[in-house]
């Protein structure tokens, strides 16, 4: 079980490479001021140059590699259409998929009219039921600024070519979202723990007070559970397990809750410094809320999560 839930010899170096890349580009990837919608294509192309945006798009394996990449990107709160890219590369035809995987083109995925990164998108993918289809804009995109500075937009779409069964694409999108959220939650937790270890009140570290330590401990358990569930889902998908899709859905819901809880407790622990643009938490918590708001938690996803709970020993309550 430990081997399954850990990062294997191939995935760990990939995650380390992405972690080093994020550290080298920390200034460029920092979130701008609230409401400033700006997408850095140069930074996005640099990330694509690592070859990670096409992970898993061969249609066979790659789920564990995807999780390793997204854990590192999540910890750095890296901006860009990550979930959308890892979903679209499983649906678009070869030429479009190659353009998106190499960073030459941007894809948006979701349910119109409100779509993430629509103001920058070259390809529009609409998810509908179990299928997906290419969207053709009827007119110009109306740009919308967002909390994390992502260029969302409103656009009406006509139906284009059908893109087939979206099951695997949805699973990879959910895995990406889960790993990003878990990574970001871990980053927030680490920042909060470092602060409470050194911040003193009444002659002792504030981390020694139960009112501070216990909520952070609860968040640590939730974040670790999200990490483990995400890695388990990836392992089952790579192994061709029938439960992989349901586990990916459950992992996203678990990571979403854990990351939002981490954001709340980090701001509680950090106090005033937590809400400054220069502080360790604000840009990450904004990114968490942006990822958490993606339209992935549809009825199908909740039903899949309930199926996992029902299949667990002593399950049945959802």
Describe this structure in words.
By secondary structure, the protein is an alpha+beta fold. It has a domain at 169-311: Butyryl-CoA Dehydrogenase, subunit A, domain 3. The protein has twelve helices and nine strands. The strands form three sheets. It has a four-stranded mixed beta sheet. A hairpin with a 2-residue loop joins strand 3 and strand 4 (131-137). Helix 10 crosses helix 12 (299-311). The longest helix is centred in the middle third of the chain and has 32 residues, at 167-198.
Q: Roughly what is the average pLDDT, rounded to an integer?
A: 85
Q: How many helices does DSSP assign?
A: 12
Low-confidence runs (pLDDT<50, min 5 residues)?
none
Rg estimate, integer Å: 19 Å
Strand order in the sheet with the most strands: 1-3-4-7
List the helices and strands and how they pair.
Layout lengths: L1 H4 L5 H14 L1 H4 L11 H8 L14 H13 L6 H7 L5 H8 L5 E4 L3 E2 L7 E6 L2 E7 L4 E3 L7 E3 L2 E9 L1 H32 L1 E2 L2 E2 L4 H29 L5 H27 L11 H11 L6 H13 L7
Helix pairs in contact: 2-5, 5-8, 5-9, 6-8, 8-9, 8-10, 8-11, 9-10, 10-11, 10-12
């Amino acid at each position: 079980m430990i081997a399954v839930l850990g990062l294997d010899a191939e995935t760990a170096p990939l995650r380390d490479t992405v972690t080093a890349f994020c550290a080298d580009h920390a200034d460029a990837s920092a979130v701008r001021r609230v409401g400033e919608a700006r997408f850095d294509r140069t930074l996005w192309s640099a990330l694509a140059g690592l070859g990670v945006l096409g992970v898993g798009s061969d249609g066979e394996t790659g789920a564990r590699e995807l999780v390793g990449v997204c854990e590192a990107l999540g910890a750095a709160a890296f901006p860009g259409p990550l979930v959308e890219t890892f979903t679209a590369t499983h649906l678009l035809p070869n030429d479009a998929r190659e353009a998106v995987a190499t960073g030459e083109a941007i894809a948006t995925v979701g349910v119109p009219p409100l779509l993430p990164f629509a103001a920058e998108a070259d390809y529009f993918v609409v998810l509908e039921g179990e299928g997906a289809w290419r969207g053709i804009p009827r007119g110009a995109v109306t740009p919308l600024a967002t909390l994390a500075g992502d260029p969302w937009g409103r656009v009406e779409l006509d139906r284009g070519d059908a893109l087939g069964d979206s099951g695997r694409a949805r699973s990879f999108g959910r895995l990406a979202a889960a790993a990003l959220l878990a990574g970001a939650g871990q980053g927030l937790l680490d920042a909060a723990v470092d602060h409470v270890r050194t911040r003193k009140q009444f002659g002792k570290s504030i981390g020694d007070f139960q009112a501070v330590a216990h909520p952070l401990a609860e968040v640590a358990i939730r974040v670790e559970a999200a990490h483990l569930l995400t890695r388990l889902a990836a392992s089952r998908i790579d192994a061709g397990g029938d439960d992989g899709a349901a586990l990916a859905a459950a992992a996203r819901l678990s990571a979403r809750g854990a990351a939002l809880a981490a954001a709340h407790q980090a701001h509680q622990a950090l106090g005033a410094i937590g809400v400054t643009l220069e502080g360790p938490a604000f840009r990450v918590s904004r990114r968490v809320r942006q990822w958490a708001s993606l339209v992935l938690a549809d009825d199908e996803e909740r039903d899949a999560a309930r199926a996992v709970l029902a299949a667990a020993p002593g399950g049945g309550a959802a």
